[in-house]
Amino acid sequence: MHQLGVFDGLFVVMIVACFLIRAPWEFRNKKAKSVESRDSARERFNLLLVFTGSLTMPVLYLVTPWFDFANYQQSLLQGVLGVVVAAVGVYVFWRSHHDLGRLFSPKLEMKESHTLVSSGVYSRVRHPMYTAVFLNALAQALLLANFVVGPAFLVAFSILYFSRIELEEKMMLDHFGNQYEEYRQRTNRLFPSVGGCQHVSRGS
């Protein structure tokens, strides 16, 4: 096992912070009734890939020598950049959950009384939760100095995102129709548009 460094420790802090942000919402939202689900075997497999790349592999990297063959010398600049990206990612992760509230779900589903809102981070970006996860995945790639484990989360989440995003937006269009289409026309998926927006669908 390689000697754990400061940036390894800060990576653990990022993971714990994200868990503490999400866990209470997952617990509360289990009581919210799902009125439509578009889950699939592929979706569940992709979620397993994300779990493996974001948690299983990093834990093995930190506590076993299994991935030591892929370790490399990390620069200070890389580590500091990783900390900055992680801080932004955790903030957006918290803000997304806070603004989404009881409508949050990690699955492709619509909750009971799903609503359209025009406040918070969802008033600027359609999928800020995904933005946050991409930032956290990039932070892992920067903080963990390993050619295999570092980018594992980013690769796994990219697979999930690109296989899911069109299905998710179609589900939102089917449910909200022209309201969501108009909102989609004036916002970007992951980053704020220059002019902002006024209405937004609460979705992950």
Structural account:
- The chain is mainly alpha-helical.
- The protein has a single domain, classed as Up-down Bundle (Four Helix Bundle (Hemerythrin (Met), subunit A)).
- It has six helices and four strands.
- It has helices spanning 6-29, 41-63, 76-100, 128-143, 152-176, 178-185, and strands at 34-37, 109-111, 116-117, 200-201.
- The strands form two sheets. Strands 1-2 form a two-stranded antiparallel ribbon. It has a two-stranded antiparallel ribbon with strand order 3-4.
- The protein is elongated, with a radius of gyration of 18 Å.
- The N and C termini lie far apart (37 Å).
- The model is unreliable at 196-204 (pLDDT under 50).
Short précis:
The protein has helices at residues 6-29, 41-63, 76-100, 128-143, 152-176, 178-185; strands spanning 34-37, 109-111, 116-117, 200-201. It has 6 helices and 4 strands.
Can you lay out the helices and strands and say which pair or pack?
Layout: H1 6-29, E1 34-37, H2 41-63, H3 76-100, E2 109-111, E3 116-117, H4 128-143, H5 152-176, H6 178-185, E4 200-201
Antiparallel strand pairs: 1-2, 3-4
Helix pairs in contact: 1-3, 1-4, 2-5, 3-4, 4-5
